[in-house]
């Protein structure tokens, strides 16, 4: 019972505790002492317990709490500090680790002995716990005195390691653990007393190194060293620094080694970024990207050099095409074929250039959007230049035409054709006049479809799908309609043939097929009057009868200029099959009745305009195949010329195609596109004003440009004219107070 327990006064109790503390110190100092027995531990704990639970004034909790602190201070002052003060450098660090480990053991044992204080007295009075008191004693007496020397010693070891020497990493890790623990749960001690100095030291170290490397090394060699430094510093964090230091440490290295010398590295005369691009040093470029991505605003200068390099190579290709065209003009033999060859070579070169640098963006620059944009901007520069007198839009359309035609000069497999089409559509993204490409492509597509020149229907549909994805459904709607028309026409022809078979009296004297086209889908073809030969009149009448019964409300317009005829020419040496157009056939059929005809007689009988007469007669009498003889013998067609059937005409082939001189319809295509653009601008202006009601001039123009840029770059002057036109047509009106503001007239 408490009343029977003997009172322990302060000094007697402390003398007993002091013996336990002395034994603990002896164990820690030399280890020669036997460890505490359970009985000794219980006696020491009980003594504290009793001294704290005696009734006042004999409750010595406060005095014991203070003497607990004094016990640590005495041990540190008499044993720990003298041992540390007599050592320097690495030896001092080892001694500190040993003393810190001992101190933690002492804290653990003493806090057990004095545990009753923790449980009651400390909680009631809101004081620091025993464990924390022990730590604070070490921090206030040992750490505060030695932290500068310890920091200097650790930094010396770090510098040694950076210079290639081996160091005791475990020792450094333990020391830095002390810095962390001195924060008592926070990182302030580590950050202020060590990390801040480490970062300063790191910056100075790499500043010295980089200043030497920049003069001695090439750009790739420098970057190899920089990458190795970063790898080692990251490794260093893993070995002994606190994980929170990694970002800060690497940032210092990046600042001193990369950011400080970026411009010099990129512009090095014989090894800078432009040289690496020129020499295809992909590994070095990938390293450059990895490293400069780490620093703020590190990539834009690299992307800018990349853009200029690609642009320069593209402009070189344009110049090469111009030079090749100039050289071929001097040798006029195969001028037409040579021109086509130059265009094909140019587009193929652009595709190869795009393949190459797109691969750079993927492999060297990790698909970074900055480099995709640089590639796009570079290609937009030279892909919108006029090459050999043609726009890139026209050249791309021509390239596709050659690729998709039967008997293409490029012998490619189906997979290669598909890949090439995919690449062409990617190039189209860089062309500002996509609508011009669309019109040229539609013209070429119409000829392939109508004259059965298309090599593969699947490829035709495939590129339309790709174009639809790239430019939208409206872009390809007419082209898709053309392809569908041809399929419907084939079905229509089968029905027509079945209709003929049903009644033998309907069958005309010659075989013929009709392709019915929908006016809105196809390019505009010139309607030319022609007095059809008697042989053809029955064909037209028969088909009209069939079509009128099938579709009563449709009107047929016959485009004779697109008609193709195969006829037999009975010449003296042998019969030859002639593949010609309907106009040529109509002219030749006249010579079945008379061997000689004047120009005026032919025109009178057929009713053809002079322009068409001249072209077709020229092809039959002045070109490669002289089926007709002309008097006088010259290369021009005049109204007083006389033409005679050439009975002696012969050729080594049994079947020949007599072509017409090509008409350059480029101007017509461009005129059609200009007209469509005016409609598109009108629609965009009205659409914008309808939704916004009131807009100032500048904002209206900007919004219209933004809407139309996907298809073409509208001219500001034309937009202004279209606005004026819409005002005159009462779609818009000017604000009475401000003439630069427009209102929509509902």
From TrEMBL:
The keyword Ubl conjugation applies. Keywords: Ubl conjugation, Ubl conjugation pathway. GO terms for biological process: jasmonic acid mediated signaling pathway; ubiquitin-dependent protein catabolic process. Transmembrane segments: none annotated. GO terms for molecular function: ubiquitin protein ligase binding. InterPro entries: Cullin, Cullin-like_AB, Cullin_homology, Cullin_homology_sf, Cullin_N, Cullin_neddylation_domain, Cullin_repeat-like_dom_sf, WH-like_DNA-bd_sf. It holds the Pfam family Cullin_Nedd8. Belongs to the cullin family. This is Cullin family profile domain-containing protein. It comes from Micromonas commoda (strain RCC299 / NOUM17 / CCMP2709).
């Amino acid at each position: 019972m408490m009343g029977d327990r003997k009172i322990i006064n302060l000094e007697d109790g402390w003398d007993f505790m002091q013996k336990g503390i002395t034994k603990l110190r002896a164990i820690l100092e030399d280890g020669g002492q036997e460890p505490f027995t359970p009985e000794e531990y219980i006696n020491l704990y009980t003594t504290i317990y009793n001294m704290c639970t005696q009734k006042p004034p004999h409750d010595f909790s406060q005095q014991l709490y203070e003497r607990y602190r004094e016990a640590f201070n005495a041990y540190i002052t008499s044993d720990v500090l003298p041992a540390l003060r007599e050592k320097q450098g690495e030896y001092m660090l080892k001694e500190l680790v040993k003393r810190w480990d001992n101190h933690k053991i002492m804290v653990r044992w003493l806090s057990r002995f004095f545990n009753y204080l923790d449980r009651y007295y400390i909680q009631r009075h809101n004081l620091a716990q025993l464990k924390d008191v022990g730590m604070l004693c070490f921090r206030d007496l040992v750490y505060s005195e030695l932290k500068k020397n310890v920091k200097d010693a650790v930094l010396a070891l770090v510098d040694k390691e950076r210079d290639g020497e081996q160091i005791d990493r475990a020792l450094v890790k333990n020391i830095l653990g002390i810095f962390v623990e001195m924060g008592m749960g926070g990182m302030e001690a580590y950050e202020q007393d060590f990390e801040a100095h480490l970062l300063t030291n790191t910056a100075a170290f790499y500043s010295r190194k980089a200043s030497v490397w920049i003069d001695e090394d090439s750009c790739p060699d420098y970057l190899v060293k920089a990458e190795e430094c970063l790898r080692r510093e990251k490794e260093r964090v893993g070995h002994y620094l606190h994980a929170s230091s990694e970002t800060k440490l690497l940032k210092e290295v990046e600042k001193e080694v990369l950011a400080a010398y970026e411009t010099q590295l990129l512009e090095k005369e014989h090894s800078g970024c432009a040289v690496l691009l020129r020499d295809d040093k992909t590994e070095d470029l990938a390293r450059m990207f990895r490293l400069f991505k780490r620093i703020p605003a590190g990539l834009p200068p690299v992307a800018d050099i990349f853009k200029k390099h690609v642009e320069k190579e593209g402009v070189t290709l344009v110049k090469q095409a111009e030079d090749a065209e100039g050289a071929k003009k001097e040798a006029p033999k195969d001028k037409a074929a040579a021109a086509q060859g130059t265009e094909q070579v140019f587009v193929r070169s652009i595709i190869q250039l795009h393949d190459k640098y797109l691969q750079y963006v993927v492999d060297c620059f990790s698909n970074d959007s900055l480099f995709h944009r640089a590639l796009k901007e570079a290609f937009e520069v030279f892909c919108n230049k006029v090459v050999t007198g043609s726009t890139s839009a026209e050249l791309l359309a021509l390239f596709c035409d050659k690729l998709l035609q039967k008997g293409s000069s490029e012998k490619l497999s189906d997979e290669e054709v598909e890949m090439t089409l995919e690449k062409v559509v990617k190039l189209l993204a860089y062309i500002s006049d996509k609508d011009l490409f669309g019109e040229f492509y539609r013209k070429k597509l119409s000829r392939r479809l109508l004259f059965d020149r298309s090599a593969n229907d699947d490829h035709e549909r495939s590129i339309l799908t790709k174009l639809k994805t790239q430019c939208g459904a409206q872009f390809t709607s007419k082209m898709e309609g053309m392809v569908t028309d041809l399929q419907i026409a084939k079905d229509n022809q089968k029905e027509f043939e079945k209709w003929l078979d049903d009644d033998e009296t309907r069958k005309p004297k010659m075989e013929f097929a009709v392709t019915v086209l929908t006016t809105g889908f196809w390019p505009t073809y010139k309607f030319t009057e022609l007095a059809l030969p008697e042989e053809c009149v029955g064909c037209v009448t028969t088909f009209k009868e069939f079509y009128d019964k099938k579709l009563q409300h449709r009107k047929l317009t016959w485009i004779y200029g697109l008609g193709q005829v195969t006829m037999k020419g009975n010449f003296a040496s042998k019969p030859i099959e002639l593949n010609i157009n309907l106009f040529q056939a109509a002219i030749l059929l006249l010579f079945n009745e008379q061997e000689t005809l004047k120009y005026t007689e032919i025109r009178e009988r057929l009713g053809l305009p002079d322009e068409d007469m001249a072209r077709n007669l020229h092809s039959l009498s002045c070109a490669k195949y002289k089926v007709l003889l002309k008097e006088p013998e010259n290369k021009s067609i005049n109204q007083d010329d006389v033409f005679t059937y050439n009975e002696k005409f012969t050729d080594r082939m049994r079947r020949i195609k007599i072509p017409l001189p090509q008409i350059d319809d480029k101007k017509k295509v461009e005129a059609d596109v200009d007209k469509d653009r005016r409609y598109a601008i009108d629609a965009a202006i009205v659409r914008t004003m309808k939704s916004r009601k009131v807009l100032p001039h500048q904002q209206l123009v900007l919004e219209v440009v933004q809407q139309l840029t996907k298809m073409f770059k509208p001219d500001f002057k034309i937009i202004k004219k279209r606005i004026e036109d819409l005002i005159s047509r009462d779609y818009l009106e000017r604000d009475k107070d401000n003439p630069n503001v427009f209102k929509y007239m509902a």
